[in-house]
């Protein structure tokens, strides 16, 4: 027989040192598929962030098609357990109903729609994000898939952060078509919007913090090796660089929520394995680490963010006026809206002499719910909200009963961060950020479904 080739089922024949043949067990094909899926979607979503956040018609369509291709491949070749579909059917039905409501409205009110030619692209983005969310849940439903995907997200996110540092210091952002902020106070990354860039960098920082805490916990329990230490050092580097760049965007909401989420993660991390050290030591460590991190952040990015703190009251009052304005405007067509993707055109048509100076530059409502209501009606908002609330309840219930590890908690905090930012900013209007949020939320949902099935937490 050949030295390599024939083998028993599940084993590979390899030459032995004495001329014999050894049988080495192969990893199941499903494990390879999971690894490939985790790597592919992590690199894909971070690449979308790097390419202007996919925040243009061309990049947005390409990103939507890529995300849909991943979702279709996951559904076709992922060997999804039928129980998964039964457990997700209700949420999927509400999400599909939301997309159907938007499509139904534009079909029967096309003559009254503000910009019907923009509907197709906006619907493609919506369907791609729903598809990615369900595909991520199917991936998270598989054992160890969440941990692997989050690891690759931090690796790809770390490469993106390093790229940002290089591009900023060399002044190549303009040459590559990005907003050049070298020598300026605010940093917009490759997305082109300061606040959206702050949300994206904050999410990367949180994911890096969760992975770093997980590796440091492994070392603390003396279960790791040198590779675990190297990984922890890399994650800490990504955490610090991403947080500094987040602060340099001068987005007060993104930076503030990122710091709060990092402190929550640190508090939870120090509370784990409590039997190994007394409460006083944990409190001292929390204060020392938190103070040291904030001091280092203040030295590197403090002037950038502190320079705008005096404007918080005025800016918040202005933002509340914007929300009140668009909240009232959403009642002009509360049932069907004015058509997906039509907000910018609709806003220009609504300008009046007394408010044109204040609202002419708005391409988004700075509140994701209000903008969806203006474009597709409040029933669409309700259907989509229910479709997302059901997974959120399942995730919270699973975490409460079975616990959650630090990488999983960091993913949830990242989703909470971008959700908070989207209430007063445009974070979820950027397709790549919405895709990253859908991926993280879907992964957490899939693991919660598996946790419910097994009765204990899954990696």
TrEMBL record:
Its main location: membrane. GO terms for cellular component: membrane. It is found in: Membrane. The chain crosses the membrane at residues 36-53, 59-77, 89-109, 121-141, 150-167, 187-209, 230-247, 253-271, 283-306, 368-390, 402-420, 426-446. Keywords: Membrane, Transmembrane, Transmembrane helix. It is a multi-pass membrane protein. InterPro entries: O-antigen_ligase-rel_domated, WaaL-like. Residues 238-384 form the O-antigen ligase-related domain. This is O-antigen ligase-related domain-containing protein. It comes from Sphingomonas pokkalii. The lineage of its organism: Bacteria, Pseudomonadati, Pseudomonadota, Alphaproteobacteria, Sphingomonadales.
């Amino acid at each position: 027989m050949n030295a390599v080739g024939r083998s028993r089922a599940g084993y590979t024949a390899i030459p032995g040192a004495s001329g014999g043949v050894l049988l080495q067990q192969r990893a199941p094909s499903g494990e390879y598929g999971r690894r490939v899926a985790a790597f592919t979607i992590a690199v894909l979503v971070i690449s979308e962030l790097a390419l202007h956040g996919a925040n243009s018609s061309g990049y947005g369509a390409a990103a939507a098609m890529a995300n849909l291709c991943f979702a279709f491949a996951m559904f076709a070749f992922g060997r999804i357990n039928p129980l998964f579909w039964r457990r997700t059917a209700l949420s999927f039905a509400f999400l599909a109903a939301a997309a159907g409501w938007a499509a139904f409205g534009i079909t029967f009110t096309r003559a009254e729609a503000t910009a019907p030619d923009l509907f197709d692209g906006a619907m493609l983005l919506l369907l791609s994000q729903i598809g990615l969310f369900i595909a991520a849940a199917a991936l998270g439903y598989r054992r160890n898939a969440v941990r692997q995907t989050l690891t690759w997200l931090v690796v790809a996110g770390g490469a993106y952060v390093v790229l940002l540092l290089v591009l900023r210091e060399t002044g190549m952002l303009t040459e590559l078509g990005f907003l050049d902020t070298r020598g300026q106070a605010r940093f917009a990354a490759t997305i082109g919007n300061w606040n959206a860039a702050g949300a994206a960098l904050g999410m990367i920082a949180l994911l890096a913090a969760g992975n770093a805490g997980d590796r440091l916990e492994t070392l603390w329990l003396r279960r790791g090796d040198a590779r675990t230490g190297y990984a922890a050092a890399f994650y800490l580097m990504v955490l610090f660089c991403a947080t500094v760049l987040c602060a340099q965007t001068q987005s007060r909401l993104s930076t503030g929520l990122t710091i709060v989420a990092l402190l929550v993660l640190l508090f939870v991390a120090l509370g784990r394995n409590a039997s190994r050290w007394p409460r006083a030591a944990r409190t001292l460590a929390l204060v020392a680490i938190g103070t040291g991190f904030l001091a280092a952040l203040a030295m590197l990015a403090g002037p950038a963010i502190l320079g705008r703190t005096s404007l918080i009251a005025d800016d918040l009052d202005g933002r509340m006026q914007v929300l009140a304005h668009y909240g009232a405007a959403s009642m002009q067509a509360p049932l069907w809206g004015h058509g997906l993707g039509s907000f910018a055109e609709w806003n220009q048509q609504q300008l009046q002499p007394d408010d044109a100076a204040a609202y002419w530059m708005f391409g988004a409502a700075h509140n994701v719910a209000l903008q969806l209501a203006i474009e597709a009606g409040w029933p669409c908002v309700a259907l989509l909200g229910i479709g997302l609330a059901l997974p959120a309840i399942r995730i919270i219930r699973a975490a409460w009963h079975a616990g959650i590890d630090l990488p999983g908690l960091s993913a949830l905090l990242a989703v909470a961060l971008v959700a908070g930012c989207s209430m007063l900013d445009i974070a979820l209007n950027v397709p790549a950020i919405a895709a990253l949020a859908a991926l993280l939320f879907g992964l957490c949902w899939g693991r919660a479904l598996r946790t419910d099935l097994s009765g204990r937490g899954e990696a």
